[in-house]
């Protein structure tokens, strides 16, 4: 999976070219596979942060 030159255009195309893509984020969230999403570095960093915080606080 490479970087998209224009991520907003990719999102717009994925949502069917709608003008107001934010309306469809709920549907998008229900259809995106988490294993695929974990390949995105920004998502991986965001989702790892709570685990790192629990480790720092010795909850894990």
What does this structure look like?
With 60 residues, this protein is an all-alpha fold. Helices cover 58% and strands 0% of the residues. The chain is built from 4 helices and no strands. The longest helix has 16 residues, at 41-56. The radius of gyration is 15 Å and the shape is elongated. The model has no long low-confidence stretch (mean pLDDT 81).
Overall geometry: elongated
Distance between the termini: 32 Å
Q: Characterize the biggest β-sheet.
A: none
Structural class: mainly alpha
Number of helices: 4
Strand content: under 5%
- What is the string of helix and strand elements? HHHH
- In the predicted model, the low-confidence regions spanning at least 5 consecutive residues are none
C-alpha Rg (nearest Å): 15 Å
Number of strands: 0
What percentage of residues falls in helices of 4 or more residues? 55-70%
Please state the average pLDDT score.
81
What's a concise summary of this model?
With 60 residues, this protein is mainly α. Helix content is 58%, strand content 0%.
Structure characteristics:
single chain, 60 residues, mainly alpha, 0% strand
Topology:
Blueprint: H1 7-14, H2 25-31, H3 34-37, H4 41-56
